[in-house]
Amino acid sequence: MKPKKKVEKIVFQSEKDVPLMPMSLGSMLYNKTGSWRNIRPEIDLAGCIQCGICWKFCPDISIEIENEFPVVNYDYCKGCGICAEECPTKCIAMVEERK
Amino acid sequence: MKKEKTMKLSLPTEELMGSGHLACQGCAATLAMRYVLKALGQKTALCIPACCWSVIDGPFPHSSLGVPIFHCAFETAASSASGLKAGLEMVGDMETTVVAWAGDGGTFDIGIQALSGAAERNDDIIYICYDNEAYMNTGIQRSSATPYGAWTTTTPVKHFKNRPKKDIDAIMAAHRIPYQATANTSYPEDLFKKAKKAKEIKGTRFLHIYTPCPTGWKSRPEDTVKLGRMAVQNCIFPLYEVENGEKYTLNIKPREKKPVNDYFRLQGRFRHLKEEHLKFIQAEVDHSWERLLKLAEPK
Amino acid sequence: MKKVIMGNHALSWGAQLGRAQVIAAYPITPQTQVVELLSEMCANKTLDAKFIKVESEHSAMAACIAASIAGARTFTATSSQGLTLMHELLHWASGGRNPVVMGNINRAMAPGWSIWTDQNDSLSQRDTGWIQFYCSSNQEVVDTVIQAFRVSEAVMIPSMVILDAFALSHTYEVVDIPDQEKVDAFLPPFNPPIRLTPTAPHAFGGLTSPEHYFELRYKLQKDMEKVPDLVEQTGREYEKMFGRYLGQVEDYRCEDAELIFVTSGTAGYTARVGVDQLRQEGVKAGNLRIKMFRPFPFAKVREILTKAGKVAVVDRNISYGHHGVFYQEVKSALYGRDHNVPLFGYITGLGGRDITPEIYKEIAQLTLAKDKPEEDITWIGVKR
Fold this sequence. Notes:
heterotrimer; A: mainly beta; Alpha-Beta Plaits; two-stranded antiparallel ribbon; two-stranded antiparallel sheet; 5 strands; C: Rossmann fold; Rossmann fold; 7-stranded mixed beta sheet; 6-stranded mixed beta sheet; 16 strands; globular
């Protein structure tokens, strides 16, 4: 996914910069939710049948498709484990996060 | 290490929802939004009242969606959507699909008056209720969508909820709106198809999406999709469509109706239930299912 | 074009001349004729608007706010219980900077059920961030609605145009209906700086942390402070085109007055009769009718009242546990000034009890008999 808008967090230093009404001016991509994670999915592509189920069920849009294979975006993956649970070949393992 | 097989995805790859949002781990309400926006496309405007999604989207001045949102008052999802549609048309935008996007509290309880009003007028909006069966955003208080037997912070184990879930779909059918459907984030293709279908119809359309909530249901985040599937397989939350309040179409009829017990065992909110309660619930589910089968019988 | 119309129809005419694009309203006595005529105007296509016939006032205001955020000019009308049901959304409209214009018919709050006038409904909305105009004639209603659109849209703050139940809402008067072409020249189409559209998607009104909420409210107040000057300018421009001037206040025979009444609404019109009669009897009376209540016209009020011998504020409302609302406001406007004008507070006419010229005479007598007020509230007309 290509970030279309500003990725940094917007903080106004002066009321003059604050818009008239509370409205969004940037995306949430600044918020790297990967830090919420205790366990991380690791995909063993040798077992991957390219079904796209992990991509489809990711609530955090953290599985991207690159060269026809799923890749986890650890910047945002919250570690919910749905991908591992739903993977029909069980080629995704949830492993302890290294902190 | 490229393999021969190429990926065939069952949903379009375009995302109108971005990462970095504030949903809990394993949140199905997020999946619901992702699929609906894939179906409705960029020319969509959302009215979101107080609900999990008013937080999930992110704080001012940020948003995780690529479509405009009007964050509206709790009880005004439907009336705001009606007004937004009228306003957009008056400034020459006849195309944008206006969606009221509310939780079960904002739909079954505090917003039902405005919803009923919009449906009776047949205002040209899609009303989508993502149903996680309690006030999850405020910390798991019971709503009229909370099922019989559930623990919430306002229905403690000793006084668990002893009334059945309100049948919002029957209420909407009684309004004879052109199109309504139940959907479930564990069946994304079905959900996608229904949202697409709704988009092409004029008038008030209603989608009731079942969205498991690990935080409120005391379930494991990884079980979110499994729970949604179970609720269809055991007929607790059947998938069906209703046209003009009369024509019922059952989308999935399980070959073998699974017992409710396994579904209940995966959720901490039902841990206190005894065998007798589960029997009672099974009987209720059977009864509702039979009633639905009758409604969906070819006439 | 001169027409004999009722006050409620004056609101509808104002909305039509202002080319409201979305109307969402719910009927309530004594406002019903506003929405009835608007329904006809929409049906006859003399007004090109979408009229959403909602199921409650709460939904009416919600729909207006959402239509406004899409960039449409919006209008609604209500009264009393309906206005107070909207309360939550009145904050929403001002906080979201949606310049909705609303007619409100002043009607006393239940219980017991009342359909007659007093101001507690609208004055209870004092702190919602709406501009409030109180009218005393049907002509003023039409002219105010048109100007309210201009002022509201210039600062992106909603306006309430207020008239008394029956005393104005159902009273027929000759009204000079302005020409549509001239109104169009005075009031161009609504073109907000920001609007909700999928072509430039923004999320409006999201979760706002202490980091930024404060600044949003600061800006609302700063823009509210621009309104008095704006009302003056807009009023002068309107006067040039239509020959009628509406400012923040109307002062009547105040220049040499030993006693000035402070009034609002139709009671302010009656006060002029009272003033004339008192003058015939040798009492130098004057009347200051407050037309714009929010923002409060501090400068005008100070300028006029500091010249008075005594001031008698006549309130058709009460803030329970405090005093009459206009009395509080005038007192705070005059506090700490060089001229310490004795200020008397009178409450009368609650729940639609008539306010007659005789009442002004009684108030004059009571005020002139004392050097300074002994109490903050003197009740006029309570059966004791």
